[in-house]
Amino acid sequence: MEVFASFQGEGLYAGEPQVFVRLRGCPLRCPWCDTPGSWHVQPDAEARISAAATRRVPTRATPFQVACWVAEVEQGAPRTISVTGGEPLMWPEFIRGLSSMVGSRRLHLETAGAHPRSLARVIDAVDHTSLDLKLPAEMGEVQELPGPGFEPSPRDAAEWRAARRACLELVAGRDACAKLIVAAGREHGAYEELLADLARLAPRLPLFLQPVTPVGPVGAAPLELVRALAEDALDLGLRVRVLPQMHRVLGVP
Ligand code: SF4
Description:
By secondary structure, this protein is an alpha/beta fold. It has helices at residues 63-74, 92-99, 116-122, 157-171, 192-201, 223-235, 246-250; strands spanning 2-7, 17-22, 46-50, 54-58, 80-84, 107-111, 128-133, 176-182, 207-211, 240-242.
């Protein structure tokens, strides 16, 4: 969908200058999603390459082509590449291909943590994984991408639980972090199972509580809720930090 240079706004590497490779396609429907334009894969869509002059190119590209665009937009020393979306785990073979094309650059993955089989395909090909923890009750209806070969997405609480636990087991002990988006209208007890899973399966994983950037009907998280969640996480022995989206603060993409 796009290749551009900016500052990482979330998680363990917030503030780091990175190149972002945003892949089209996401079957999930998070209510706070700020990139709904990434949900669909239209063969005739174009990708935006934000180099010295922004230009548009056909959206289908090989890992080699994307690696060339990365070198074009970073305009200087090689940067870490953040593969984001959409849900990048729709394209595990592309991610593996890209990892072999980027030289000494680090490859970071940002994922919803809903597709453990695909995560297992790429976990050794990436240098860092940022895993969103989703509250099943607030996820909208899954809209699977058309076509064969995509790993099915979780559709109910039990499937979300299984996917979350499998993903946490995959990233435990690696260079990784977990993010929990916190929005208005939630009770802090609703997060109990997520935090317990994290404490049990990946207790050393840094946890970022990310107060939602209000979008559409999704309102800002009350500070009391953020405080309560931070206390819960501390009580479980988790390494918790509170961090709003820094790229929004800076006003950059
Ligand atoms: S997983 Fe990401 S791209 Fe997909 S709906 Fe959620 S926030 Fe949007």
